[in-house]
Amino acid sequence: MDFKRYFPIFQWLPLYGRETLISDLLAAVIVTIMLIPQSLAYAMLAGLPPEVGLYASIAPLFLYAIFGTSRTLAVGPVAVIALMTAAAAGNLAIQGSPEYVTLVIVLTFMSGLMLTIMGLVKLGFLANFLSHPVISGFITASGLIIAASQARHLLGLDAEGVNFISVMYGLLSRLNEVHLITLAIGLGTLVFLYANRFWGRHLLTSVGFNPHTADMMSKAAPVLAVALTTFVTWHWQLDQQGVRVVGTIPTGLPPLSLPPLIPQLWTDLFLAAVLISIVGFVESVSVGQTLAAKRRQRIDPNQELIGLGAANLGSAFSSGMPVSGGFSRSIVNFDAGAATPAAGAYSAIGILIATLFLTPLIAYLPVATLAATIIVAVLSLIDLKAVHETFVYSKSDFAAMLATILITLTQGVELGIMVGVGLSLLLYLYRTSRPHYAVIGRLPNTEHFRNVERYDVEVDDRIALLRIDESLYFANSRYLEDVVMDIVINQPKLNHLVLTCQAVNLIDSSALDSLRTINKRLKDSGVQMHLAEVKGPVMDRLKKTDFLDEMSGVVYMSTYDAWKVLHERAEESESEKNSTDKSA
Amino acid sequence: MDFKRYFPIFQWLPLYGRETLISDLLAAVIVTIMLIPQSLAYAMLAGLPPEVGLYASIAPLFLYAIFGTSRTLAVGPVAVIALMTAAAAGNLAIQGSPEYVTLVIVLTFMSGLMLTIMGLVKLGFLANFLSHPVISGFITASGLIIAASQARHLLGLDAEGVNFISVMYGLLSRLNEVHLITLAIGLGTLVFLYANRFWGRHLLTSVGFNPHTADMMSKAAPVLAVALTTFVTWHWQLDQQGVRVVGTIPTGLPPLSLPPLIPQLWTDLFLAAVLISIVGFVESVSVGQTLAAKRRQRIDPNQELIGLGAANLGSAFSSGMPVSGGFSRSIVNFDAGAATPAAGAYSAIGILIATLFLTPLIAYLPVATLAATIIVAVLSLIDLKAVHETFVYSKSDFAAMLATILITLTQGVELGIMVGVGLSLLLYLYRTSRPHYAVIGRLPNTEHFRNVERYDVEVDDRIALLRIDESLYFANSRYLEDVVMDIVINQPKLNHLVLTCQAVNLIDSSALDSLRTINKRLKDSGVQMHLAEVKGPVMDRLKKTDFLDEMSGVVYMSTYDAWKVLHERAEESESEKNSTDKSA
């Protein structure tokens, strides 16, 4: 049972049949065609030789097929992770240098290790650190940075820059140096891809293809653009006239690589590896869950960590780069009818064949074509609608989102995502540092109690009934101490305070300490503390301690019981009480 | 109004009268007597010249009197903070060297700045990061480390060590070198102080003092020990025979000091300053709140941050060390009748006089006496009862506590507190990553709905009613997606899902996204999503978005409404539904 949990492949492999094989193979062909230009482009985006993108699309896909739980997630290089990789490795070495490639392998290995360990110790819930506004803001800003960074390839310029602002400035100040043939190829591809995105399917159906086939064909448009521009460049030898091309790509199996054991490198890349792991995991899981839900299937987030971890470890040992579940590719895989992770393995075989035999054909592939592919892909990441909706819906969430966007654009991806996470956490802690509570009073002539601020209820200034609407633990229990002392100070005649606990599912050690503190302080102020409606499991735990003996008051079954006893007692001893008030 | 909030001194100074003056002066005399040996001892513990402790007990006390909100908190050097200071500065310079003193001044300044800023932007709630088991474990472990580190002064050994284990080993392996006269003085002081703690008050009352006077006299016992051992050492010139003494302390006002602006220093000390600030604040606020409650007074945690911040800034500019609110001293101040923070200012004057005139008298004070004072003080910090209670009460809290203790003892205070904070946060996120919820059914023939697992209720396998018992935000909303999909998968006939939201006070942007996702996934699975009992403010927010139009179902006023409509509709269209199930 547990074995199958850690090796999900054994859940579907025994049932594998002919029909599934055909669906998976068909999906694999389409994904492979889409993956070839994407993997070359994202390797370029990460500042790596193009073949690294292909290498990262072989072993990781096999490993994910064994360890992953999503039936349709297509792993491989993705845009945002490629950008983060470039940012991390670019701090420590020059893009494209051998040291740079080594750094990326260490980064991939660390990320794989972290994901695997997080999966084994079941830390999938850590993805909750990232709120939606932060991740959405981060991805939008990353999309802008990627688009800006690729614009130079489209324009044939060499402008460099450390962030969005300086890249844009560099481009604009050198517009007079634009290389026109490169621009023609790049812009042509861009227009073609956009036209295809909006009208391609419609055009293909109108000339007689059935809608599904038309859809799949239109998804293969980037390959057509690659083939066409490569042919044009080769035929007219445009590379001699200054059009930058991919160049010779080594043919053969991915070379084995070993991450070097240099402690300094590991320390330097640690933070980047953490961020890449978390962002990759969050993106991957959202895609995986959305697709699984469409077929009423489930994915297991902790096992997904192991699947992604294994994929990255595989990538690190086969000269690849960090991988994650890609959004567009996974949807294509799903739509094309992939039924099991085997489709991913077949795609890997497709890429392997391409690596072995097709690389000579793409030596003349213009870099501008790849840049256009990237720009079209990432512009769909920019979600201004989400920015607007968040603004309308919640100002504090919007603030977190805006800070993430601005800092990502101006200070880079690492600081951007960290500030985002920090802000999410701060907002969260702030929101949860105060338990919901209400001072309640009795609805006249009933056994019901309601918030004194909303209802016209019966109260007694010698008794305070405080209803706690949440579990108590260290993050919110200190605030309860404040609430109680506020009541004591504002209600000088107070003699009894009842905490009504029907919504309290847990009292942790810190909250228990707070209750002790409240009890002591109330005693010092001459007020007895009582509990009411304590749930069974909470009561069982309290009984293990001496708190109930220590508490100045008693535990009542219901709020009404507490009210009846204390109110009647107070009425009876009214005169006596007044005389003892001072000494209490 | 706001002015008085930031300068609490104006809340009490205008009302200051003769009676208050007398109470404050009396308390100040007693606290001063107690503070002199303590401040020397804690400076020694921090690896600083003894006068630094005195300097840190002048300006900070004046400043806290102006900015602090606790009427009775006695600020100054404290044991745990002194230990943390020694750990931080000891990493970068040799104890007692001029660089070391400079490092401590930078640390004090940074901590003061951080506390002040946290107070101004109202980050007092950040103290919630530290759960009680973690802080209690940390203080217990610190107490053990301090006691072990002082044992060498008691034994007259020079043993050094980087952590508790190595210090203990160093001491035990050199027991044959113990300096016997030093041991006699140290052990004598220790026995005297312990005897005083247990029997002193009783003895003094039995010879005729009234209990209150006896109590105060017994609190002054350390001063007696200091005077006696200093006299003995001076009279028999024991320093010539190897008894280490405090030596010549410069007389005069605390010299002005400026933290040097060396960025590298600031970076190196940043983390330590954060930890010292938070630990100091948490300790200080707990003491302050406990004492304030005894007189039905309040302290304002955010203003306390400013008060402590000002005190530390003052300490940094007057050659002092990091300060915080001390536990034992504050209780003495309170018991002695201090009525306003002016008592602290009078203590500062007392220490100032001591610094100006009394320092020559303590040149012959044996270091062993101070060590004994520290040991007696810190052993009360070691709270094995709390360890046991936490073990009995909650295994997960105990695990966090034990990890904090073990890592503090073996790896040092900084890593100890950080691991503790990390574990607290992890535990917290884990606990809150799953919102409480219940699948509910109808109590037959009523309009009430209850948990299907606990009650014998009416259900319909085409309808699922899910009651959400908590506010939804990014930390727990993803789990809700899982819960819903679990229901969908396990209930194949399902057509309608109703989320009952009477306990939902907030839906943040992330949770809204989750609701959208749930709606889409349900639609893909052929299930309609409905809401019921949505609170007014939550509904107002949802109306600002297009979610309600997007949602496949409708919003019902009550769970009963939803049940009635959907159940009846399902019954009516039973035959029809079966035929359309597949296409849905």
Given helix and strand content, the structural type of chain A is mainly alpha
| Helix percentage of chain A | 55-70%
Radius of gyration of chain A: 31 Å
Give the biggest beta sheet of chain A: 6 strands, mixed
User: How large is the share of residues in beta strands of chain A?
Assistant: 5-15%
Q: Describe it for me?
A:
The structure is a homodimer of 584-residue chains. Chain A is built from 26 helices and 8 strands. The first copy, chain A, is mainly alpha-helical and 584 residues long. Chain A has 2 domains: 408 residues, no CATH class; 144 residues, Transcription Regulator spoIIAA (2-Layer Sandwich), CATH 3.30.750.24. In chain A, helix 21 links the parallel strand 5 and strand 6. In chain A, helix 6 crosses helix 7. The longest helix of chain A has 32 residues. The radius of gyration of chain A is 31 Å and the shape is elongated. The N and C termini of chain A lie far apart (64 Å). The model of chain A has no long low-confidence stretch (mean pLDDT 86). Chains A and B meet through helix 13, helix 18, helix 19, helix 20 and helix 21 of A and helix 13, helix 18, helix 19, helix 20 and helix 21 of B.
